[in-house]
Amino acid sequence: MRKSELAQLPEIPEKTPVLIAGPTASGKSALALEITRTRGGVIVNADASQVYDCWRVISARPSVAEEAEVPHRLYGHLPYDAPYSAGHWLRDVAPLLAGPERPIIVGGTGLYFLALTEGLAEIPATPPEVRAEADRIALDRLLADLDPVTAAGLDRRNRARVQRAWEVQRATGRPLAAWQAETPPPLLPLDRCLPLVLETDKDWLNDRIARRFDQMLAQGALKEVAAMRDRYDPALPSCKAIGVPELMRHLRGEIDLEQARRDATIATRQFAKRQRTWFRRRMRQWHRVDPAE
């Protein structure tokens, strides 16, 4: 973490929650750790892959030493096959907002932050049979079945979001946009916290992504994925973490390790591009911090 990042921050009033969003590999966790070291608080996870106990290295979770140095919450607290959504996360984070320590909420899952600061519609759970039906349908058909208002608000390349909208419509008979129009007040409005989003040069970030995956391999990412080989299910959210499918293909003898490395790096860069676009569109009121400066 660069000292210039702290210098870019506005004054943080005592006990004010801090939100740190940004694309993968942009240095969010390092900034959260430094703020917590110097100004106190508890670091709270807002990354959908880091909630699972099977992934530390491959999801870039804080190290054991970092977790021991300052308080961390909602990291690795779920088994690999546990269902988890923005609604689950919001219920988990709610008591931490009322705790004695300032929450430093950090991660790359934009939907979590949106649910926290703008509210989350109380949509009934999707029946398993509807989800199984959706799993068998191609992305373009899922999109074609959606109402125009819902479709206009989605990232059309993000199958998980498109499928979720289709499932809601199929299960409830109402479009997702109609449910969202009834969203209750947020738990933490933007005027009650310091919202930060890391935004930097694409080439700087791409270089960090390549170097970080090499570091993951050196730190045991392949061994971590191999330990899940008998439980691997590509339909589970935990098993969709970037790097997991690629290394699993290598372990099954389908590609060599160098190809797995290239594929995972490309997938990470594509994911970071989608994140950067989403954050620019949906987090216009957030304070920008450039980690490359």
From TrEMBL:
Residues binding ATP, per UniProt: 22-29
Ribonucleoprotein listed as a keyword: no
GO molecular function, one term: tRNA dimethylallyltransferase activity
EC number: 2.5.1.75
Pfam families: IPPT
Keyword terms: ATP-binding, Magnesium, Nucleotide-binding, Transferase, tRNA processing
Keyword tRNA processing: yes
Catalyzed chemical reaction(s): adenosine(37) in tRNA + dimethylallyl diphosphate = N(6)-dimethylallyladenosine(37) in tRNA + diphosphate
InterPro entries, A to Z: Dimethylallyltransferase (IPR039657), IPT (IPR018022), P-loop_NTPase (IPR027417)
Residue numbers marked as site, Interaction with substrate tRNA: 109, 131
Source superkingdom: Bacteria
Residues the entry annotates as binding substrate: 24-29
Cofactor requirement: Mg(2+)
Family per similarity comment: Belongs to the IPP transferase family.
Alphabetical list of PANTHER family matching this protein: TRNA DIMETHYLALLYLTRANSFERASE
Function summary: Catalyzes the transfer of a dimethylallyl group onto the adenine at position 37 in tRNAs that read codons beginning with uridine, leading to the formation of N6-(dimethylallyl)adenosine (i(6)A).
Quaternary structure (record): Monomer.
Name the UniProt record assigns to this protein: tRNA dimethylallyltransferase
Gene designation: miaA
